[in-house]
Specification:
single chain, SusD-like_N, globular, 432 residues, two-stranded parallel ribbon, mainly alpha, two-stranded antiparallel sheet, membrane, SusD_RagB_dom, RagB/SusD family nutrient uptake outer membrane protein
Length: 432
């Protein structure tokens, strides 16, 4: 049965009124996400559609919080407190029922869902038009993206397709995965085609997210097929790594958040750089020692991914420091090569070696499936460092307990204490 979204804090929609952020629409070619005002949903008309779209982009980008984008690196052995200490203790400290980052991530994702559901509700009441269709496609993409983040962290979560005041319970993760695929099917039909601007959601972005979603469910052959279709489409090609992470136009990004300085709190870079760096920073997290030894000699990702400044190790993918914000790549072609490589098994070696060649590495020739999959996993860790993949990669492949040393129950995030205190319908994941 389809559930509706509660405005109670019990469903993590804290302080959210039944309003929509409307934003001014810039005359430039990029989206202007700066919020200007709010209006009740029933007063929105066709003339507000651009502003409604921009407000949705704003919500999905910002509400989840900056650590959300690196959460799987924080609990996946890639990052640790800048002050050092035990990596296992660091992971255990985050995966607590009362930890603020976990609570903020849950609530932020559901706040974003509230906004997306509002958009879909309003679009349904407006006259049919090409613009309405495109906005609906974008909204379904974002709902799939939000639920991917939720189900990959918590497993069973409330599946909410319309906003409501009811207190909700959790749905099986299988139902959530199915809904994600259903939303992406609509996005593939209704979202606009990619026209060279990766700061807009497109049909191709929906297909790329579908490949990620299929991989997350261990539907390996299906994931590989979707990824290969995207690779063969000609819309994208592997590009220089420095272009991707130095805000330079490139052919590899499929969808990214522009992360405009004036409206964003997603200041990832300040978490990584030190005061000794030219751009300064607060140096909250640093790469683990293992990450500092991750890259082969000549790998052109190394200098763009990690660095040492005044004897302190830093993540180098988001270079603005305290001076501004960096674009956030959400989906790019490098991931599609890795999905195709993993999903096809040894038959995917050409895709793995093609990515390695683009990163200035020589081809490899693993002798068996286990050796090959280990090579793919290593390449994923290098390629997607500090982009929010590592922990779930270990979880979905059954290696998290062995590699990280965590307890089995920590292969899911805990439901935040506060959410359960105010909503007894939310059960806790076993072990917490």
């Amino acid at each position: 049965m389809k559930k509706k979204l509660s405005m109670y804090k019990t469903t993590a929609i804290t302080g959210i009124l039944a309003v929509l952020m409307l934003v001014s629409f810039s005359s430039c070619t990029k989206l202007d996400f700066y919020p200007q005002t709010s209006v009740a949903p029933e007063t929105v008309s066709e003339r507000d559609m651009d502003a409604l779209l921009n407000g949705m982009y704003n919500a999905v980008q910002n509400n989840q919080g900056r650590e959300s984008y690196i959460m799987f690196d924080l609990v996946g052995g890639n990052l640790i407190n800048a002050s050092g200490g035990s990596e296992l203790a660091f992971i255990r400290n985050i995966l607590r029922t009362d930890y603020n980052l976990v609570n903020n991530n849950w609530s932020g994702l559901y706040q974003s869902l509230y906004q997306v559901n509002n958009v879909l509700h309003i679009m349904a009441g407006l006259p049919q038009s090409d613009k309405r269709t495109r906005i609906e496609g974008t909204a379904h993409f974002f709902r799939a993206y939000i639920y991917y983040n939720l189900v990959s962290r918590w497993g069973d979560v409330p599946l909410i397709l319309e906003n409501t005041t009811e207190r909700v319970s959790r749905d099986p993760s299988s139902a959530v995965w199915s809904q994600i695929e259903a939303d992406l099917a609509i996005a593939l039909e209704k979202a606009p085609a990619f026209e060279g601007d990766y700061y807009y959601v497109s049909q191709q972005a929906a297909k790329a997210l579908l490949a990620r979603v299929l991989l997350g469910q261990n539907k390996l052959a299906e994931a590989a097929q979707v990824a290969e279709e995207l690779i063969a489409s000609g819309s994208f090609s592997l590009d220089r790594f420095d272009k991707i992470f130095r805000h330079t136009e490139n052919t590899e990004e499929i969808f990214s958040f522009k992360n405009l300085t004036e409206e964003s709190s997603i200041t990832l870079s300040t978490l990584f750089y030190t005061y000794a760096h030219d751009v300064s920073g607060s140096y909250v997290y640093k790469p683990t020692d293992e990450v500092m030894n991750l890259f082969e000699e000549g790998d052109n990702r190394k200098d763009m991914s990690i660095a040492t400044v005044s004897s302190l190790n830093v993540i180098n993918k988001y270079p603005s420091g305290q001076t501004g914000t960096d674009p956030i790549p959400v989906i790019r072609l490098g991931e599609m090569y890795l999905i195709a490589a993993e999903g096809k098994g040894l038959a995917g070696l050409p895709q793995l070696n093609a990515l390695r060649a683009a990163r200035n590495l020589s081809p490899i020739n693993p002798s068996n499936e286990a050796e090959y999959q280990a090579a793919v996993a290593l390449e994923r860790r290098r390629e997607l460092l500090a982009e929010g993949f590592r922990w779930f990669d270990l979880v979905r492949t059954g290696k998290a307990v062995e590699v990280l040393g965590i307890e089995d129950y920590r292969t899911k995030f805990p439901i935040p204490d506060y959410e359960r205190e105010v909503n007894p319908n939310l059960t806790q994941n076993e072990g917490y």
